[in-house]
Amino acid sequence: MTSEDAGLTGRMALLWGQRAQPRRGPKPVLTPERVATAAIGIADAEGLAAVSMQRVAAEFDFTAMSLYRYVPARADLLDLMTDLALGEAPALDTSAGWRPALTEWTRHVYAAFRRHPWILETTVRVRPTGPRELSWMERPVAALADTGLTGPEQVDAAVLLLSHVRSQIQYAPVDAATRTPEVAAGLATALHEHADEYPALVRAAGDGAFGPGDDGGFDFGLRCVLDGIAAVVASRRAGPAGGAAG
Amino acid sequence: MTSEDAGLTGRMALLWGQRAQPRRGPKPVLTPERVATAAIGIADAEGLAAVSMQRVAAEFDFTAMSLYRYVPARADLLDLMTDLALGEAPALDTSAGWRPALTEWTRHVYAAFRRHPWILETTVRVRPTGPRELSWMERPVAALADTGLTGPEQVDAAVLLLSHVRSQIQYAPVDAATRTPEVAAGLATALHEHADEYPALVRAAGDGAFGPGDDGGFDFGLRCVLDGIAAVVASRRAGPAGGAAG
DNA sequence: CGGTTCTGTTTATGTTATACACAGTTTCTG
DNA sequence: CAGAAACTGTGTATAACATAAACAGAACCG
């Protein structure tokens, strides 16, 4: 255990900056960060599927194999891309209480995912958490510190907001203007050909659900979750015997 | 437009049962459903990455290419797997109101994702919706029909609960017993080596967050969302001027 | 019975990640 | 300052993957 991150191994090591410092040989031209930054650019422009080792290496006029001098494997590159793309979480203004702070945080998360929607794909599987990603969790938990919620509940509340953002990004992807019409039209067709089996959905669609005017339930969901957290916070302050879930 | 689903094309066709009926030639041994069912078994047992055309075909002692007689491409197979694995949504008991009904629904969704956690991966990208998957959306929207929520809001509420289930499955995968300790240990190590940067998280971890006793925020999140929906419903009944999100 | 249509296979192509060995370069050591 | 060691980027090779194209045989229709 010589380095400060000596306890970290495998996919965690690269993410937390644990790097072997070479003393001899030619200077490395690149760094893991430069490689990941190039990969982020490709993913932003052409989607995550376009991020192959070859494609990333081509960005530097290198061969695919050269990247393995900087990154142990593609999976590690995706981890680093994710952490770098998220970036350090902005500080929150908690002076007006936890609710405005969490609202601000949620909008920041939404914006970050909007910039790099492929993060949805890199984060479906179990994977190591990077330092920047962790800073995103730090903020809301800190904002909830004085609410009376337990530590795990504070984390759960943040995860709840995060999952809402994820679903909003997922159902309204970047190129919604081009891709969604096809899918939406197919859904509308199927729905009306089987109207008898989905009466409630047909009615909701008639009210504008699934349509172009339906700008996503971001505000609705945000309000629901914050109201819900507020209810739990209130019950914690009234007394330790809170209501049941169902 | 000869068939009832004639309007559906591309990846939508297979999902909604639009099949060309062969009149001559050898009887097909398989069906798209049998192929997908075999693939589901593989995904359940070995993960989605193990579902290659070759691996699925081997289940029938067939060649990989033979599957293309039943399924246009791998992507369509994944779509069909998803719809079949979800299955038809169970009916809900709405006699006690929308809240118990939605609670019941959420637990059913959770159970379905638990059985087939790879559905998380097959559903990150934009993709066509199948008839069974659509039945899962029908139930909660029907249960919310008389609440005063608009159609889009009813859908948003269901999506909100769904996204909560997704995040719970994601952060506590099936093989948590084997995979999570590694990841959790790495997180704990990183957290304590940088304790000064994540004071709130360190405190929360001390309270049991991220630990083995933290059985996930399923109930907490469910309660928050339902309380939040209840608040909006109440405001709709009190008058059309509801509160703001932040 | 002959032609048509359909199945499952064979063969081939292009892409992917990545293991391994090497040539050239830089730096450390004696 | 010579030689060894370490390191970089490359060339070559492999195995897995999806899937296109052509084909042999079987089933059915007229």
How does this model look, in words?
The structure is a homodimer of 246-residue chains. Chain A has 246 residues and is mainly α. The first copy, chain A, has 11 helices and no strands. Chain A has helices at 11-15, 32-46, 53-58, 74-86, 98-115, 119-122, 131-143, 151-171, 176-193, 199-206, 218-238. In chain A, helix 2 (32-46) crosses helix 4 (74-86) and helix 5 (98-115) packs antiparallel against helix 7. The model of chain A is unreliable at 242-246 (pLDDT under 50). Chains A and B meet through helix 5, helix 7, helix 8, helix 9 and helix 10 of A and helix 5, helix 7, helix 8, helix 9 and helix 10 of B. Chain A binds a DNA duplex (30 and 30 nucleotides) through loops.
Largest two-chain interface: A-B, 87 and 87 residues
User: Mean pLDDT of chain A, nearest integer?
Assistant: 90
Structural shape of chain A: flat
For the secondary structure, the number of strands of chain A is 0
Radius of gyration over C-alpha positions of chain A, nearest whole angstrom: 22 Å
Short descriptors:
mainly alpha, flat, 246 residues, disordered C terminus, homodimer, DNA-binding, 11 helices
Quick overview:
The structure is a homodimer of 246-residue chains. With 246 residues, chain A is mainly alpha-helical.
Topology, please?
The structure is a homodimer of 246-residue chains.
Chain A (H helix, E strand, L loop, with lengths): L10 H5 L16 H15 L6 H6 L15 H13 L11 H18 L3 H4 L8 H13 L7 H21 L4 H18 L5 H8 L11 H21 L8
Helix pairs in contact in A: 2-4, 4-7, 5-7, 5-8, 7-8, 8-11
Chain A binds a DNA duplex (30 and 30 nucleotides) through loops.
